[in-house]
Amino acid sequence: MDYSKARKILEVSHLKQYFNVGKPNEVHAVDDISFDVYEGETFGLVGESGSGKTTTGRAIIHLYEPTDGEITFDGQDVSKLNTKEKQQHFRREMQMIFQDPYASLNPRMKVKDIVAEGIDINHLATSKEDRAKQVEDLLETVGLNKDHSSRYPHEFSGGQRQRIGIARALAVQPQFIIADEPISALDVSIQAQVVNLLKKLQREKNLTYLFIAHDLSMVKYISDRIGVMHYGRMLEIASSDEIYAHPCMTTQLVYYLLCQCLIQIMNEHGCKKPMMLVKNLMVRKENL
Ligand SMILES: Nc1ncnc2c1ncn2[C@@H]1O[C@H](COP(=O)(O)OP(=O)(O)OP(=O)(O)O)[C@@H](O)[C@H]1O
Q1: Which residue has the CA at smallest separation from atom 18 of ligand 1?
Q2: Domain chopping of the chain, boundaries
Q3: CA of 29 to the centre of ligand 1 (A)
Q4: Mutate to test the pocket of ligand 1, among 19, 56, 64 (most ligand atoms within 8 A of CB)
Q5: 211-259 pLDDT, tens per residue?
């Protein structure tokens, strides 16, 4: 991507997001981080569990009121917008895809109504027929059968449910999508399919992604640049090639800790091919 010609779509400046402020259990989940995201790029956000990735995403989309700092989206300082303006702005332009495709879809709603949520809220359909057509087109765009629109979420596989979540996000034609670990809950074989779908959609619709993830190999594959978070701080921002070729010492340390953590989780919960995964992880660590 040619950054000299690129436009900044998101500017995060000295963002702080603290919880339980003034109480003994005060948490500095995000502690003075700054980064920009350019139109059409994928900015990967990685870091170990609890490093503040999800909180960053939620603060950007204003599910939280930031403790301090500025978020500028599409040239507008978000803190200066009133609640109604924020809702209108973000409902259309910024969407979120969640980690758990099981929990993020209402089990009592038919797929067509889930996908049409944003269409209904923003009055984007001119008639019932138009609404149905838009839903069918969206399902086809994400590789689902349009004839399945009257089914319920439990009738779909994990990968298909994540595609439903993506169709729901696309329904309002956003510019910017925050994908919070969108593939972590999926089988490895399905992960690549969903990532490839996201890449295809990005090309076709000029989408910008903030891609939050644990899986470093997938992040490298999809991201133009990567930010590494640790204990609420941004340790390093670099192109994904640079970060893998010459990671700074702290990033290496975080990666090492992440490997250790994953190995422990695999041991605790059982894993079908633990040795293969461990070997794979250790090889990647050695490469750093
Ligand atoms: N609503 C909240 N109230 C209090 N503390 C919170 C809240 N949300 C997150 N935290 C804390 O903030 C820190 C950062 O959490 P966050 O979920 O952003 O991390 P993460 O990097 O996304 O982790 P994971 O990869 O496990 O999802 C953690 O210590 C978490 O316990």
Answers
A1: 52
A2: 8-107+174-246, 248-288
A3: 6
A4: 19
A5: 998 767 788 889 999 999 999 999 999 898 887 676 665 566 566 666 6
Query: For the chain, which residues score pLDDT lower than 70?
Result: 89, 215, 244, 246-288
Q: What residue ranges line ligand 1, CB within 6 angstroms? A: 19-20, 27, 29, 47, 49-55
Record the tokens describing residue 61, joined without a space.
């989309």
What's 186-230 look like in SS3? Answer: CCHHHHHHHHHHHHHHHHHHCCEEEEEECCHHHHHHHCCEEEEEE
Q: What is the pLDDT of residue 224?
A: 95
Query: Which CATH number fits the domain 8-107+174-246, given the four candidates 1.20.140.10, 3.40.50.300, 3.30.70.2190, 3.40.50.12780?
Result: 3.40.50.300
Pairing of strands 176-180, 208-213: parallel
